[in-house]
Recover the amino acids of this structure.
């Protein structure tokens, strides 16, 4: 008779190899027993809700490929459900490993269920966004039980990981008030809970009743993504008392989740100067006991609206090279509007570049092989192979087609002076002909 288990962490601690572990071990080319040990220790997670039948499981954490997340969802001012579902399909086609449905308007449950029906990527949500519409109450009138009902509904629907802003307790809120920031709190969920505490005088229910949340998560095998409510919203607020004090609380909550066999990710900074990023990654791993780190950027400058997919990719590459495990993509539309499909594509590509560059720096198994194959194709001037290997094949194809050289084995940049072509010839004993 096979042993029973509740969560991936519970299974790993009991020495049970799940089908999800087998799939992830094959994808990562890692020994399955080593993977199970990391899951048991909490340094790797496999977000895989028991009810998400279409899921193709992915691992996040120590020694694995850096994964990326794509945010989408409907709002009052942009409520086109079919467009957002098209984004889901596009994100999966572009090999994003995770999708977060941040819908906060209209039929959010219908939206969530439709995503789960088609998504092979893991799905994340932020239940506090949904609470106001779900409960049909003003924020200050929502009760602890209301918040718990929303969490339970998301878990029952099949959500694989949820962002829960449990670290913004009353003590952390005092740090915010006593150490005024240039941008205050920019986390949507963090700001809502800060406002709720101020209006009601109560403790954050996700902190006060954290064990109740963990029992829901344990029942359905939901991974908690501990929300970074005090993440910096501009460079000047990075690494301040509110951010660091919340991180200490998140470390304590990590251990409490593990006591319930609940898998944990910890969310990290949003805006941060480049010279602070590595230290923040090391600090999170130390304070949060090696739990996987999920960073929202970080954006390395505040002055590039319209190009924040680039500022984010720079920060994301540095963060992941220094220990971050999961990158939340940022699009060119960040801070400006809900992204359209083109914005989303740009954001995914930028984030995937950052993730892959970091994997090379971290020495992730097989990461460099892809680049070596591209280098071989370039040396051989094999255009079709280059396109096949490209992270985004369509763009290089379009560039090549837009400017054709006279000789197929060159491009219009160098022509007959092409170094690659001429070195191939001269090393092969041929005259280069110029």
């Amino acid at each position: 008779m096979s042993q029973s288990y509740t969560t991936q962490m519970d299974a790993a601690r009991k020495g049970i190899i799940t089908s999800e572990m087998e799939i992830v071990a094959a994808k990562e080319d890692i020994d399955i027993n080593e993977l199970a040990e990391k899951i048991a220790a909490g340094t790797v997670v496999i977000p895989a809700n028991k009810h998400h039948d279409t899921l193709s499981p992915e691992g996040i954490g120590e020694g694995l490929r850096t994964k990326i997340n794509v945010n989408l969802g409907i709002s009052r001012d942009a409520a086109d459900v079919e467009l957002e579902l098209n984004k889901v399909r596009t994100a999966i086609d572009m090999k994003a490993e995770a999708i977060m449905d941040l819908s906060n308007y209209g039929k959010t449950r219908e939206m969530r269920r439709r995503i789960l029906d088609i998504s092979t990527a893991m799905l994340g949500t932020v239940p506090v966004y949904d609470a106001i519409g779900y409960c049909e109450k003003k924020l200050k009138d929502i009760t602890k039980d209301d918040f718990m009902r929303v969490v339970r509904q998301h878990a029952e629907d099949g959500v694989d990981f949820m962002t829960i802003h449990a670290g913004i307790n009353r003590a952390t809120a005092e740090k915010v008030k006593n150490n005024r920031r240039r941008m205050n709190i920019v986390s949507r969920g963090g700001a809502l809970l800060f406002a709720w505490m101020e209006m009601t005088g109560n403790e954050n229910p996700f902190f006060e009743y954290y064990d109740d949340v963990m029992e829901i998560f344990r029942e359905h095998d939901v991974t908690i993504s501990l929300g970074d409510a005090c993440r910096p919203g501009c460079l000047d607020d990075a690494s301040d008392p509110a951010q660091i004090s919340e991180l200490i609380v998140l470390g304590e909550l990590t251990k409490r989740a593990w006591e319930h066999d609940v898998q944990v990710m910890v969310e990290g900074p949003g805006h941060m100067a480049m010279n602070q990023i590595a230290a923040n990654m090391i600090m999170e791993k130390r304070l949060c006991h090696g739990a996987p780190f999920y960073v929202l950027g970080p954006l390395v400058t505040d002055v590039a609206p319209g190009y924040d997919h680039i500022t984010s990719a720079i920060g994301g590459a540095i963060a992941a090279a220094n220990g971050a495990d999961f990158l939340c993509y940022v699009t060119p539309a960040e801070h400006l509007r809900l992204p359209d499909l083109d914005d989303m594509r740009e954001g995914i590509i930028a984030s995937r570049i950052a993730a892959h560059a970091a994997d090379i720096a971290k020495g992730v198994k097989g990461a460099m092989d892809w680049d070596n194959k591209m280098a071989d194709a370039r040396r051989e001037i094999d255009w079709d192979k280059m396109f096949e290997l490209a992270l985004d094949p369509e763009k290089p194809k379009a560039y090549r087609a837009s400017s054709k050289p006279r000789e197929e084995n060159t491009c219009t940049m160098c022509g007959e002076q092409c170094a690659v072509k001429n070195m191939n010839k001269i090393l092969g004993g041929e005259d280069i002909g110029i």
